[in-house]
Known about the structure:
Elements: H1 11-24, E1 31-32, H2 33-40, H3 45-55, E2 64-65, H4 76-86, E3 90-91, E4 103-104, H5 106-109
Parallel strand pairs: 1-2
Antiparallel strand pairs: 3-4
Helix pairs in contact: 1-2, 1-3, 2-3
Amino acid sequence: xxxxxxxxxxxxxxxxxxxxxxxxxxxxxxxxxxxxxxxxxxxxxxxxxxxxxxxxxxxxxxxxxxxxxxxxxxxxxxxxxxxxxxxxxxxxxxxxxxxxxxxxxxxxxxxxxxxxxxxxx
Length: 121
């Protein structure tokens, strides 16, 4: 899918808004791609994901996640290090699930956007 729903030439401005939203997410909390799109009232999960893939390295990218809580493919271990350092709620993989990584506990980790980055959890 392309960014056809965005006006021509709007990606840089939209990207800036997505990255600003990512920077507002407090440590230990997450928003889904769809949450960010809803907050901005523009685009959708795919557009937010594209922005994060292209430009997200300069912001806490690990705080913008898939709705199912699965860690970002290809970046699982780096993201997991950030989650553990920040105390982000995780659902540990069972012992039977050998080699499987934990998922985010979306019920507990998802940020409602109401608190600001002041250490509230």
